[in-house]
Design goal:
heterodimer; A: alpha+beta; 8-stranded antiparallel beta sheet; two-stranded parallel ribbon; 10 strands; about 35% helix; B: mainly alpha; two-stranded antiparallel sheet; 9 helices; about 0% strand; globular
């Protein structure tokens, strides 16, 4: 159909305005619910890392449980606790090549962590590159600050069925009870090996067909543990 | 429903299937067919976008200036895709997390642009509605067939429910190992190829 130029401009203007109004409306109306979902998902994963069964929990239960059990703490790099900032004030910046998250508040770098009561645990975020994507998760330690209480991965873009198995229970359960320090107090971390684990303290079974994802997990666990090393060592002795 | 309307709906299921006959939407057919759950949600999302875009384009078709029609179609489709993405994030967060970028990529699904340009621009509201449903079902049918094979042989489950008994697995002392190829895109290509082969043997269709 032939239309003149003025009509074309008017038509395009109309379409653009209607579409943008509609999308603005949807985005603003749904924003609250979306943010709520993201927050619930984060809290759910923190609770999951200490071994609670979160699959059956409703959103409200998760918020309630989190409020009762989890307390967030912010640490300085030397391991001291900071009281005037909460972990929500921290701004996270991702290193694009390693996937490591750094947390800043007024240009100073801090380390976020969470303390859980019943069961008692010390939890902190871990992240790093797998094969295709950055993996984000939480690692929970027992109060001896050595034994792993649990691990979760809440966001990744690995191949489902291969690298994506990191989100599965069987893989995450393997970490429970492993130690991050060796007997002389050196940080040994945990290695995801190819095939079956041999060292029952510091190794977990690998995922077949996902060598690079497994290696990524090994690398970033060690790297992120290193950041909390000072804190862990100080508090392990008392 | 009259004969023509029925034909509009049933034609894209087999004889004129958007994936196996027109070879459109292959990219998403490879990406979201690892698990059946994802395939089903993707089908619903695509049905929403395709039906709505067909209706809107068909209602506007007499007013859309010919010179800019593709841009108008794209605006309509893109808006609908963003809308469904936002709704999924608000109401089905877990599934939207799994589908991640693929919902956004419905914009680039050739089936939608193809139906808008080839059908909705020339036909009335009702026929475009039927055409939207027909093509979505045709797309969904293939997605579900492919994902059934991929999930069953790749993960041993269907809708995340264990089908292949766990005692058969090598780790549990059995002999069975999941087929890793099924989890990767080439597995989907092979299954898709087999489906097309079977269909063409059956319908005697030969590409000119």
């Amino acid at each position: 159909m032939q239309h003149n130029n003025l009509y074309t401009f008017k038509f395009i203007a109309m379409i653009t305005i209607v579409a943008s109004l509609l999308l603005t409306l949807a985005a603003t109306q749904l924003k609250e619910r979306q943010d709520f979902n993201i927050e619930v998902d984060k809290k759910k994963n923190i609770l999951k890392s200490i071994g609670l069964d979160v699959a059956a929990m409703q959103a409200n239960t998760i918020i309630e449980e989190y409020k009762n059990k989890i307390q967030d703490v912010v640490l300085k790099q030397n391991g001291d606790r900071v009281n005037h900032i909460s972990s929500e004030d921290l701004e996270s910046v991702e290193n694009k090549s390693t996937g490591q998250l750094s947390y800043f508040y007024e240009n100073h770098e801090y380390l976020p962590a969470y303390l859980a009561s019943e069961p008692q645990a010390f939890i902190f975020p871990v992240s790093g590159k797998g094969l295709w994507s950055t993996l984000y998760g939480y690692l929970a330690l027992d109060m001896d600050l050595n034994t792993v209480k649990g691990i979760t991965f809440y966001k990744h873009g690995e191949t489902p069925g291969l690298g994506g198995e990191i989100e599965k229970k069987w893989f995450q359960d393997n970490f429970i009870g492993k130690k991050i320090f060796d007997n002389s107090g050196n940080l040994k971390s945990i290695t995801v090996v190819k095939g079956k684990a041999v060292d029952d303290k510091h190794e977990v079974d690998g995922i077949s067909g996902a060598t690079i994802t497994s290696r990524g997990v090994t690398d970033f666990l060690k790297r992120d543990l290193q950041r909390y090393f000072t804190f862990l060592t100080i508090h392990r002795s008392n | 429903m009259d004969k023509i309307s029925k034909a509009i709906i049933s034609d894209p299921l087999v004889d004129n299937n958007p994936i196996t006959k027109q070879i459109l939407g292959i990219c998403s057919a490879l990406a979201v067919t690892v698990k059946m759950e994802q395939a089903v949600v993707m089908t619903f999302a695509l049905t929403f976008v395709l039906v709505s875009s067909n209706i809107i384009i068909s209602l506007l078709r007499k007013g859309i200036p010919g010179k800019v029609r593709i841009i108008v179609q794209l605006t309509v489709i893109a808006s609908l895709v963003i809308l469904i993405d936002q709704v999924l994030k608000a109401y089905l967060y877990d599934i939207s997390k799994q589908l991640s970028v693929f919902v956004g990529l419905i914009i680039t699904n050739c089936i939608i642009m193809g139906r808008a340009e080839a059908f909705a621009m020339q036909n009335n509201f009702k026929e475009s509605l039927y055409d939207g449903f027909g093509n979505s079902f045709g797309y969904g049918l293939i997605l579900i067939i492919v994902s059934t094979f991929r999930e069953l042989f790749g993960s041993g489950t269907l809708f995340n429910y264990q089908i292949i008994p766990t005692w058969m697995y090598l780790e549990q002392g059995g002999w069975y190992v999941n087929n890793g190829l099924m989890l990767l895109a080439p597995g989907a290509f092979i299954i898709l190829g087999l489906i097309i082969w079977v269909q063409r043997t059956y319908t005697h269709f030969i590409e000119d």
